[in-house]
Structures are given as C-alpha cells and as structure tokens.
Amino acid sequence: MKLTISLQGESYGFRDLKQLFAAANEERSGDILAGLGAEHAKERIAAKLLLADLTLADIRSHPMLPPEEDEISRVIEEGVDEQAYQRIRHWTVGDLRDQLLSQDSAGVQDISKGLNSEMVAAAAKLMSNLDLIQAAAKCEVITRCNTVLGGRGRLGSRAQPNHPTDDPKGMKASIYEALSYGVGDTVIGINPVIDTTDNILRLFHETMEVIHRWNIPTQNSVLAHVTTQMRAIEKGAPADLIFQSLAGTQSGNDSFGINLRLLEEADQLIQESGTAKGENRWYFETGQGSELSAGAHHGIDQVTLESRCYGLAKRFKPFMLNTVVGFIGPEYLYDSKQVIRAGLEDHFMGKIQGLPMGVDVCYTNHMRADQNDMDNLAVLLAAAGVNFIIGVPMADDCMLNYQSTSFHDIATLRELLRLQPGAEFAAWAESMGILQDGRLTALAGDPTRLM
C-alpha cells in the first residue's frame, strides 16, 4: 500500500490505515479530541488522494481491528459475499465511489454484497454531501414487522412519547398527539426512565393497549437495556420489537453491557416469544462518538467505527435502525455543519450495507446548532430516501433533554416532498379522517378525538 505522497513540495506520510482513514475524514471534533484526524486542510487532501488509490483488497487485507481480537470484526468479515468481493477486489476506493454514483439501484445492490464496513466508510470519506444523498437514494431497503417499512415515496416516523416519570397519562397524551398528525407508523417507542423489569413490562402493556384499542397498524418498542426487555418478555410482555444500542467495537459493546452471544440469545427470544407477525424484529440505535466516549475506539476514527456498527446490525436483519446523530454533544460533533455531514454519512453507510436506516435529526443545547439546522438536515435526508425519522412533542424531548423533530415537522416534510406514511398506516389514518388523499385534513393535530 502507498501511504506517502508529495503535494506542492511537501511530503505527507501515514503509518497505517487507521491514521490514513482518520486524516481523510471531514473535520470532526471527536476525532480531534482523540488525537486523530488531519491537522489542516492540506493534510486532509493528501489523505483523500492516497485513500482514493487504495484497492478494496488493500483494505480487507489490512484490518484495523483484526478478527482474532474483536468479535465485531469477525461478524463483518463473515458478512462479505465472496463471489461479489472477487469481482470488485481490484477496484480502488475512487473506483468504488464512481460506481456507486453511476450504477442504477440494482448495480449498487450487487456491489454492496462484496463490501465490508471499512470499504463503505472509505467511500463516504471521498464523497460530497450531495454524493452521499445521491448514492443513498438508490438504495431501497424494505423490512417487515407488523407493517412494512421502506419503499419509494414513503417517509416513516417513530412516535417517541417519553415522559420524565414514565407517567402513563402523559405518555398516552403524546401518543395521541403523534397519531393525530399521522406519526407513529414505524413504531411507538418509549425511552423509559426506570429500567426495571416490572416497569418495562407495564410500558409494553400500555403501548399495546393503545395499539389494540384503536387497531393501529404499527409496532411497539420499549428502549430499555436488552436484558431488562428479555426479562419482561419472559414474564409475558407483548413486545413487537426488541431494542439495543450498538457500538462498533467489542470493547465498546462491553461498555453497553452486551456481546454477540447476548444479542443472539435476545434474537432467539424475540423470534419465539415476540408478538409481531413479520420476521424483522430488532430495533437498533447507533451514533458517532459512542466508542470514543467509552475509551473503546482503538485509534479508529468516528466514521469508520459507525460503519462497523452497521456491519454488526445487519447480521440480525433488523426492522429498523437509526443513528441518534447529534445526541452525544459537541465533544464529538461540534456544530451544525458536522451534525449535517454525520447524518448524511451515517444514512449512506447504513443504506449501502442493506439496512433500513432512520435518523434522529437532533442536537443538544450546548452544541453550536439550532432548529433551523435540523430542518435543513431533515429535508436532505428525506431527499436521500431515509426510511424514517423521529417525532417528539414540539421537537423537545422533556425526558432525554435534547432537541429533535416534531410531529408537525414530519407532516410538513411529507407534504413538501409528496411522501406518505407506511401504506397500512396511511389507510388507517384515512379511515380515521386524519388524512384524505394522502394529505392532512382539518381534523389533523387534534388528539382529543383519540382520547
């Protein structure tokens, strides 16, 4: 591999792929905090030029985290289609970028089978924001739980009715408001405050009671730790989906209290005891920076680590996955420019790896970003074909204390870009008078009709 280059009389060298990949990243405060990344724009350009000339075989032959040391690396390696890889192994990363932008949807799907997560991250580093949108928009990923997620012309939504004390009345009020705007077709998913088996069992029953009462075509999920959900399901909780946050390294997942064996046990449980009709029964969340915050990054940059999360997730064929893009804070994504870039990168990397990607378009209050920036990112992601985004009351999560997108933001995106909720949910919303011919009616936004 060529890891040195001379530009305008200056020489730039990188000791290994970790350093080269990190330097080729767009500027990222988390990488800087970790002592990674380019020191200036010239070094970044030099790294991108070298990265563009690496072959895919170079990347696969020099793993940043060897499979014998990390179970996530083993999962990623096992997920590569050997026949597809052999057809493209001689391509450079520059060739890969060009092919992803020039091929049609079927061609991109064929290419993606032969890629590992590091190759996908490498391509992302060479792409502009518009490139990331164009390539991702070619990837149609359809999954099935109780309902179908994905498909052209669809923009799904998660209703996130969190409450600071897990009060059922407060959560149900938020659920009814979400439904009144046509939000909640992907999932009604609660982040609990109290992570005990009895409380999680109660929340599963509370959400399912609403779904059954109004015959809503959707899924429920309670975003507790996977072990708490497992205990609740074993006690009879009506769970359509099982949830867990993921990291891109084994040691990162150790900090979450999970490993591959535990995920496989949870997968068996939700397949045997879950209440969903379809085969896709996982909900995963990720987000750039989690490995750095746990001291589990192994000198690897944020973008590559995030792509590795997707290599792990696809093993379990999830119904849905979203990156919580601006949730951790400015230590990892400093401002709106970095958040917007990360959201487009994450969506692209997940879609190329065959995942039903959503994005929590969000930021924290100590970040240099505001709601207008989130509006911008939401429109870009909708244009890129994102499977779903998150809806919280007034875009302000009163439990997790961060800013996201509101129910009416999602309704506006659908109207602006002529998008629909999932087909089953859209038919239900029409029957309830919330939608007519795919557009919100005068009755929309009034939750009292459901209360």
Question: Average pLDDT value?
Answer: 97
The helix count comes to 21
How are the strands ordered across the major sheet?
A: 7-6-5-12-11-10-9-8
Beta-strand segment tally? 16
Radius of gyration: 21 Å
| Global geometry | globular
Going by helix content, strand content and strand pairing, the class is alpha/beta
Major sheet characteristics: 8 strands, parallel
Cα end-to-end separation? 64 Å
The low-pLDDT segments are: none
Task: Determine the strand fraction and express it as a percent band.
Answer: 5-15%
Determine the fraction of residues in helical runs and give it as a percent range. 40-55%
Keywords:
alpha/beta, 21 helices
Description:
The structure is a single chain. The chain has 451 residues and is an alpha/beta fold. It is built from 21 helices and 16 strands. It has helices spanning 17-24, 29-33, 41-53, 56-61, 71-78, 82-88, 93-102, 105-112, 117-125, 129-137, 168-180, 197-214, 226-234, 250-255, 260-273, 290-293, 302-313, 336-352, 371-383, 407-417, 423-431, and strands at 4-7, 10-13, 143-144, 148-149, 156-159, 187-190, 220-222, 242-245, 282-286, 320-324, 357-360, 388-391, 396-397, 402-403, 435-436, 439-440. An eight-stranded parallel beta sheet has the order 7-6-5-12-11-10-9-8. Strand 1 and strand 2 (10-13) form a beta hairpin. The mean pLDDT is 97.
